[in-house]
Amino acid sequence: MNTLLAEIGKKIADRWLTALLLPGLLFTGTMGCAWLLGQRHALDPGELARRIATEIAPLNKQPILIAVTIVVALLAATVSAYLAQALAGAVNAMWTAKRPRWIVRRRRRSAQRRLPGQPEPYLPARLTAAGDHWRLAGARVATHYGLDLNRLWPRLWLIMPVESRTVVQTSYGVYHSALTLTGWGLLYLVLGGWWWPAAAAGVLIIAIGHRRGALASAATAELLEAVVDLHLKTLIAGLDAGKERALTDADALRLNNVLSKRQHF
Asked: Can you give the pLDDT at residue 3?
């Protein structure tokens, strides 16, 4: 038990260091540059060196201030990291939103020019490609099987092999990392109001996060569909919905009813 607890503690510490502390310290350092330089001396290394020398001079006389400064820096790094993670939820809501409609219409027209004759349900209907990847996973399952993926997924998750769960979790973890990265980009963008290089870095980080999110959502959505294809028959047999025969429309309707608790078999 002690070995297990030690291993868990090590993993938590590693995650705190890599996912929270290091990006947080980088952002805290950027905040320090914004405070010391401002917009007027944004790219002046000489001014930065002079201000740093001025600010650390009192620390040499009062060593306790060094400890206080370190603690404040660690707290600021941790708080900013948790704020970036909190923004990940807002970023996901934005990526999967249906509005502004003019952006969605523009994406639809672009898709129609690029791939003429594409079926209407497969045309863009969300603000970003990531949002459409999640939507299309459910739409394709509904079209092919007549089933609601949102209600189907918790049951499939319970009967999936551990290896399959790990693959899906890893893929979604990459997507969530892209959300958090974009959250960091938003924080840097806000900091650009005091130091414009931070805004430039924020735009670049947001672009990278958006691209990673699109790729990760496409891969994860494909995995969700694969899980349905491979394990749906096992779920049907467990629920006694379709026996050994192919899933009919009536079976799909009855299975949806059970999943939504509208009626029993």
From this structure: 46
